[in-house]
């Protein structure tokens, strides 16, 4: 047993050294500094402890899908005209069936021609079926919907990341979140002004320029009346005020936008001739060509003069007549403050979000509360631990030392583990540490009580230790596995701080299996080796 | 030092007292859940806005109330924070219910509260320590997640116990744990304390902990059954509880001590969390002795009456 024991002791010391290293240095290159800063640098603190902003937002993925369907419908209309099919109506995505385009009123004998067009490569994402009334229905395939949703979410995350980066936040977390496929988690350590962040992320979630068909009217009823009660299928009613402070009005706009957020190449905050903040923008070449074609056909001195509406988050921000053809640069004036103009041009520079977003959760923790929480949590942990250690010493005497050593080692391993893996310590995580202490003590108590029972039954010290560990081991495994099962489920289904708690608990329990069973046994064995056989055990 | 050196208590003989005790607490909790405070869900689940503000001096609640009323926030609730240790704190929580059925206007509540505070306390600026805004979508999602997490962890543990012992052991343990959860949630309802995400974490922890206690007793029952198949199950169960009693009292007592320290010194942020654990550890320890173990005996008696095997299967033999 002697050699074996030396090997085991060596392995315990090795583990101790490794995890001590983890606490102080973690993944980072070794740096010198005070004990406290070394620990706090290497243990990742959660937002609830160091303060910051936590946002959960939802991307309206359905919007991106609907606008993709709209674009395809507009293209289909052109393609049908090119193929010489007139008279058929192309229905746009209606709210009840956002993924379906309906081609109705197909002239007799032309069905085959229409089919040829819709079976083209441009419409490969659609399933084509024939309705009883002879119209064709193009429904976007599930796989394409999923693809588009995933892409919309990824693009949103990228865009938000770029915007947040420009805010200069250190170590932000921006990632997919939750069980659904449309949520994003944003965590910004040290930022405690959520309003500014929300504005930068969202205020111009979607910017488009639409051609104006008619308006403005005071209410939607007025607008409907002016159009004989029917909104043309290629148009839509949009609310908004022409200029800041003006009462809300309703405009009739072309449904497909002339320019979208992704068409902007650059945007800078600037001022117009009256010194009001505005935004100067530049379009991509492709969008510029498109825009030139439209504006040159509809400028003030042509036969069909027109105006354009700048639509921000589905609200008309400004309506302006087209003075002359614009190719690739222009300006947006809309009664902005300088801050808004700055933020808006930042958004345009970093690309538009593919769909609008809304906020589901905002949590902000001020730095002082975080610091107070750490202090209180640590005081509670230390107080609890001291009370437990004192009791173990009084109640189990010599063996109490085993338990206390195991407890301290457990804590070292747990913190070292967190240093190595970069796991986040949250306030509930500190509670998890306290609970780990409880479970660790329980393992020791189980073993010690069992050893006492064996001793009472008249066994020798060595046999009692052997039997005590053997019997208690079964129970310890059962209790640990069940707790790990529930912690693992908590980790899978929980979020944020709850996850931190679950993770800490799992680490702690694994460390506990090592310390309470293996380390404690080695201490007992080395103790027994020194004693003569039959000498009483201090327990 | 040794407590409970050799106890010989007839636990099963007291099962009617236990049943009465459990019924009183369960029924009180259920009645409160149904008719009194109901389920006092926190902002995490119910949605709404909650702002924690620290003032330079002890704030006058009536004054804050007036400030909120002037700002048109008539449905705001104002609650002064006090530590469990009775520490006077210059802090209040101002809560607004979910303003609308949508996730839009998410931040409006926070802004109006901040504006109202700034307008009324401009000479001693109160500092905003914590803001929590949860929209209806997130709230519903969190409710669903918490429910699923609880159900799944119960199923997970049932399956593990079924695999390690027998189905009846798993069922008895799950019933005991359900009993603990019900009484703990009932305690939250009776004392009208908010159930937040961290409280759910605490309840899941207590499920794990109560399960532990039950398993320690079950392990001993299994061991004793394997040793002596002649004695009646009731006798074996009683002896097993008595044999593990010192461990139960010491372990639970020490865990209770750490949790109590968390409750007393952990600060009011962890108040709900530690309250759930304080209640849960007491009730979890009790239920392993008073609910789970008697169920095994009751099951065996029921089987015997129907003329089936008289002895309870000892389960798969444990490998030591």
Automatic annotation (TrEMBL), chain B:
Membrane topology (UniProt): Multi-pass membrane protein
The UniProt record lists the keyword Membrane: yes
SUPFAM superfamilies per the UniProt record, alphabetical: Multidrug efflux transporter AcrB transmembrane domain
HAMAP family (alphabetical): SecF_B (MF_01464_B)
Similarity-based family: Belongs to the SecD/SecF family. SecF subfamily.
Domain of life the protein comes from: Bacteria
Main location (coarse class): membrane
Stated name of the protein: Protein-export membrane protein SecF
Annotated keywords: Cell membrane, Membrane, Protein transport, Translocation, Transmembrane, Transmembrane helix, Transport
Subunit record text: Forms a complex with SecD. Part of the essential Sec protein translocation apparatus which comprises SecA, SecYEG and auxiliary proteins SecDF. Other proteins may also be involved.
Taxonomic source organism: Edaphobacter aggregans
Protein export membrane protein SecD/SecF C-terminal domain: residues covered: 120-301
Record-annotated membrane-spanning stretches: 16-36, 146-163, 169-190, 248-266, 272-299
GO biological process, one term: protein transport by the Sec complex
Subcellular location: Cell membrane
GO molecular function terms attached to this record: protein-transporting ATPase activity
GO cellular component, one term: plasma membrane
């Amino acid at each position: 047993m002697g050699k074996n024991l030396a090997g085991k002791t060596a392995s315990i010391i090795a583990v101790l050294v490794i995890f001590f290293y983890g606490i102080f240095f973690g993944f980072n290159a070794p740096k010198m500094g005070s004990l406290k800063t070394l620990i706090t640098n290497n243990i990742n603190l959660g937002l609830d402890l160091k303060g910051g902003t936590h946002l959960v937002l939802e991307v309206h993925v359905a919007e991106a899908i609907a606008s993709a369907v709209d674009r395809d419908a507009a293209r289909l209309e052109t393609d049908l005209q090119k193929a010489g099919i007139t008279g058929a109506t192309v229905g746009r995505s209606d709210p009840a069936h956002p993924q379906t385009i309906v081609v109705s009123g197909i002239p007799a004998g032309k069905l085959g021609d229409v089919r040829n067009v819709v079976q083209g490569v441009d419409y490969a994402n659609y399933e084509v079926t024939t309705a009883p009334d002879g119209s064709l229905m193009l429904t976007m395939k599930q796989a394409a919907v999923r693809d588009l949703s995933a892409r919309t979410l990824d693009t949103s995350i990228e865009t938000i990341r770029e915007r947040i980066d420009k805010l200069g936040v250190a170590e932000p977390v921006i990632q997919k979140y939750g069980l659904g496929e449309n949520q994003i988690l944003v965590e910004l350590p040290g930022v405690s002004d959520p309003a500014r962040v929300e504005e930068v992320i969202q205020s111009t979630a979607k910017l488009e320029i639409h051609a104006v068909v008619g308006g403005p009217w005071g209410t939607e009823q007025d607008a409907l009346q002016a159009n004989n009660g029917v909104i043309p299928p290629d148009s839509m009613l949009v609310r908004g005020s022409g200029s800041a402070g003006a009462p809300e009005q309703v405009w009739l706009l072309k449904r497909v936008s002339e320019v979208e957020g992704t068409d902007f190449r650059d945007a800078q905050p600037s001022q117009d001739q009256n010194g009001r903040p505005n935004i100067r923008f530049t379009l991509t070449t492709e969008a510029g060509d498109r825009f030139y074609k439209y504006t040159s056909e509809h400028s003030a001195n042509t036969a069909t003069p027109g105006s354009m509406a700048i639509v921000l988050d589905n609200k008309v921000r400004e309506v302006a007549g087209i003075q002359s053809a614009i190719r690739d640069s222009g300006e947006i004036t809309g009664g902005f403050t300088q801050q808004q103009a700055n933020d808006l041009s930042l958004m345009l520079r970093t690309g538009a979000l593919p769909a609008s977003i809304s906020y589901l959760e905002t949590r902000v923790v001020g730095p002082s509360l975080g610091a107070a929480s750490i202090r209180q949590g640590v005081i509670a942990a230390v107080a609890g631990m001291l009370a437990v250690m004192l009791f173990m010493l009084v109640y189990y005497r010599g063996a109490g030392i085993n338990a206390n050593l195991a407890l301290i080692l457990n804590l070292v391993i747990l913190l070292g583990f967190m240093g190595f893996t970069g796991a986040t310590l949250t306030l509930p995580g500190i509670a998890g540490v306290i609970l780990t202490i409880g479970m660790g003590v329980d393992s020791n108590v189980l073993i010690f009580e069992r050893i006492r029972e064996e001793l009472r039954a008249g066994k020798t010290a060595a046999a009692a230790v052997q039997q005590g560990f053997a019997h208690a081991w079964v129970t310890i495994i059962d209790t640990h596995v069940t707790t790990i099962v529930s912690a693992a489920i908590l980790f899978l289904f929980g979020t944020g701080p709850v996850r931190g708690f679950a993770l800490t608990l799992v680490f702690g329990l694994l460390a506990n299996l090592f310390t309470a069973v293996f380390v404690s046994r080695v201490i007992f064995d080395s103790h027994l080796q020194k004693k003569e056989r039959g000498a009483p055990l201090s327990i | 030092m040794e407590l409970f050196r050799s106890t010989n208590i007839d636990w099963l003989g007291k099962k009617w007292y236990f049943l009465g005790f459990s019924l009183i607490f369960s029924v009180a909790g259920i009645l409160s859940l149904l008719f009194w405070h109901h389920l006092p869900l926190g902002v995490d689940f119910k949605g709404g806005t909650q702002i924690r503000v620290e003032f330079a001096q002890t704030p006058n609640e009536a004054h804050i109330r007036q400030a909120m009323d002037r700002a048109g926030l008539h449905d705001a609730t104002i609650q002064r924070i006090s530590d469990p240790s009775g520490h006077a704190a210059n802090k209040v929580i101002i809560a607004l219910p979910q303003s609308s059925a949508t996730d839009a206007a998410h931040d409006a509540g926070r802004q109006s509260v901040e504006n109202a505070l700034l307008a009324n306390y401009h000479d001693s600026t109160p500092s905003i320590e914590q803001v929590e805004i949860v929209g209806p979508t997130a709230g519903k999602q969190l409710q669903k997640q918490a429910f699923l997490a609880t159900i799944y962890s119960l199923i997970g543990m049932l399956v593990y116990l079924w695999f390690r012992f027998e189905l009846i052991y798993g069922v008895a343990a799950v019933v005991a744990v359900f009993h603990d959860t019900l009484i703990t949630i009932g305690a939250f309802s009776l004392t009208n304390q908010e159930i937040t995400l961290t409280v759910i974490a605490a309840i899941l922890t207590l499920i794990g902990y109560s399960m532990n206690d039950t398993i320690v007793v079950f392990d001993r029952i299994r061991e004793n059954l394997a040793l002596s198949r002649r004695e009646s199950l009731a006798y074996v169960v009683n002896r097993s509880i008595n044999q593990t009693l010192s461990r139960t009292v010491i372990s639970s007592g020490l865990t209770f001590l750490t949790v109590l320290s968390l409750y007393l010194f952990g600060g009011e942020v962890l108040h709900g969390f530690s309250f759930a654990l304080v209640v849960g550890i007491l009730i979890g320890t009790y239920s392993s002795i008073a609910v789970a173990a008697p169920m095994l005996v009751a099951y065996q008696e029921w089987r015997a009456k129907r003329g089936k095997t008289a002895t309870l299967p000892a389960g798969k033999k444990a490998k030591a």
